[in-house]
Write a structure and sequence with these properties.
InterPro entries: Methyltransf_25, SAM-dependent_MTases_sf. This protein is of the alpha/beta class. About 25% of the residues lie in helices and about 30% in strands. It has helices spanning about 5-20, 65-70, 85-95, 105-110, 130-140, 190-200, and strands spanning about 55, 75-80, 100-105, 115-125, 145-155, 170-175, 180-185, 205-210, 220-230. The strands form two sheets. A seven-stranded mixed beta sheet has the order 3-2-1-4-5-9-8, with helices on both faces. Bound molecules: S-adenosylmethionine.
Length: about 230
């Protein structure tokens, strides 16, 4: 029988094998794209994040969690599906006050927790990788009134692709540290389709920003959406 490892687990295992995790200084800026310095930073979550409760869905190595806890004094929980990633995040940033890392599926975590959050966000994380109708309903239930959801996803028109014309996920790839690729399913909506799905769960889209590096990218590479709980 063919045994399959989750691409996200394989990615974390390869990364840890090549670069063991050690304590890091939190980055000075929150990043929503793969180009440092491009587009907005943490201000789209709230102008004042001090003491706010934030949740990242798919935090990976935890750079943004650490930034928000250290530079904005927010209380931030990062969830990641892969225990190895959580171990890596804790090795990097476990010493940062206000930063907590937990292993689990974003949807299961939201279904189980009794907490509410001032903002929930995802940076190429669980939003786009989990059925939106299920994930947005769970997110909406755990946001305070007027709470913010912000997420960045690979742009649906990157590299000559086209946004989905229906609600189903499409095949995409995770690129491993050694440049091999493993297939995943991804929901690839344009801003209009995201807005429709958000509105079904009481979330109102407030902005859709296309990010493209002016010199390096011939196409927009990232779509950054913000929404507010009604
Ligand atoms: C492309 S990485 C982004 C990591 C991080 N947000 C960053 O910007 O560095 C995607 C992460 O989402 C995690 N992930 C994938 N599906 C998930 C799910 N259903 N629930 C929680 N995390 C998930 C993966 O394990 C991986 O660490």
């Amino acid at each position: 029988m063919l045994a399959q490892v989750s691409p996200w687990y394989a990615h974390a295992a390869q990364r840890l094998a090549t670069a063991p995790a050690h304590a890091l200084v939190p980055p000075a800026r929150m990043e929503w794209s793969t180009h440092p310095g491009l587009g907005p930073g943490a201000e789209i979550l709230s102008r004042d994040l001090r003491g706010k409760r934030l949740l990242e869905l798919g935090c990976g190595p935890g750079h943004n969690v650490a930034h928000l806890a250290r530079h904005h004094q927010a209380r931030v929980t990062g969830i990641d599906l892969v225990g190895l990633q959580v171990r890596r995040a804790r090795s990097h940033y476990g010493h940062i006050e206000g930063a907590t890392f937990t292993a689990g599926h974003a949807l299961h975590y939201l279904q189980a927790t009794g907490q509410t959050f001032d903002a929930i966000y995802s940076v190429f994380g669980a939003v786009g990788l989990v059925a939106p109708e299920l994930l947005f309903a769970a997110i909406s239930r755990h946001l305070v009134p007027c709470g913010v959801l912000a997420f960045s996803v690979p742009h649906p028109a990157r590299a000559g692709r086209h946004p989905s014309t229906d609600d189903r996920p499409r095949e995409d790839y995770v690129t491993m540290p050694d440049r091999t690729r493993l297939p995943i399913a991804r929901w690839e909506y344009d801003a209009h389709r995201w807005a429709t799905h958000l509105s079904r769960t009481g979330l109102q889209i407030t902005s859709a920003i296309e990010l493209r590096h002016p010199r390096l990218d011939p196409w927009p590479t990232t779509l950054l959406i913000t929404a507010r709980k009604r």
